Amino acid sequence: MNLWQSFKNNDDVYLEEPWLKIVKHMLFPPVLMYTLFPPMLIRDTLNFGIELARLNDMVYKSRQVKSFFNPSPIAAKLRAMLDPEKVHRSDIRLRIAVVSLETGKLRYITESGYFSGNSDQPVDLIDAALASSAIPSIFPPVKLHTENYVDAGTREMLPVQAAVDLGATQVYAIACSKPGGEPAPSFDGSNMMDITSRAIRDIMFDELQQKEANPPRGWGIDMKLIQPALDVHGILTVDPGLISISMAYGYMRAFDIVEGGSDPKKVENLKRISDEIIRLRLKIWDIEHPTRGKQKPGEKASWPDPGYPRDVRKLKRDLKALVNERQQLGGATATPPDVETWWIDKELLP
């Protein structure tokens, strides 16, 4: 089992910072528990002043509040599963991109555990990986030597240049999210958060990514972009079913681009089918969640639809038909090896 397949829920990857727990408890008290156990209400009422004081202390000492979450669970998993020495001996040339908050510069850590162009002081590869994924405000910056580093996406969305600098003549660049420039419904009644999210996450980031994928003078090499057409889950969602679906999507979309050949029509058909397969699997996952007593992330529990078994059987027949269509077009390797489990088994749940 790989690292991603070992995750069952958010707590396997990150934890809420203490201040966030306090705020959530103050804003969203457990009303149902108060009804069932009235002494809890008395206890929490008495503790309210204490929690307010703790929150005030944290706000006052704002240097302690660096993020909403901390990645200690995945850091522990990485230290247990990853051997930096094996990475060093692998002969695979690696560049982990990070950005310094102090200098604002983009830097790379190599497979040997040093900053590129500087072999004076070693850098822990696991710390480098955590820094490279430290989305500002979501996760705290990581101290590497004397500077604090965050996710390199703040300066570079697609690190194609690093591969070019290493002498690559063919590059496959992977974009982890769908294009963000697609039309959206009217924003007449939208609030500040909706507008900010649309402007920054969808439009601005997409523009940066598109410019990096297609610079004005080109890359001067064969560069192919592997990018999903839809997002399977959000950046903070950890769900084994969605992870499984996302991994299958990544496999198929990579096949579409790498093995699709020079026929544009064939490539577009492969991409269309992979998108349809993922939409269908997401629909099946959505139906199967409540039937097994599990809540979908962020939703209340609901009773299963009486027509569930019949509906799912039909959807899985449709899924098998799409897989057959894809394999006829691209061959057996156009789908992952576990493809038959998609319609034989239920989608994974926590």
TrEMBL record:
Q: Where is the PNPLA domain?
A: 50-163
Region entry Disordered, spans: 291-310
InterPro entries assigned: Acyl_Trfase/lysoPLipase (IPR016035), PNPLA_dom (IPR002641)
What Pfam families does the record tag this protein with? Patatin
- Keyword field: Hydrolase, Lipid metabolism
The molecular function terms of the Gene Ontology recorded here are:
hydrolase activity
Lineage: superkingdom: Archaea
Query: GO BP, one example?
Result: lipid metabolic process
Has keyword Repressor?
Answer: no
Protein name as annotated: Putative esterase of the alpha-beta hydrolase superfamily
Organism of origin is Candidatus Methanoperedens nitratireducens
Q: What is the lineage of its organism?
A: Archaea, Methanobacteriati, Methanobacteriota, Stenosarchaea group, Methanomicrobia
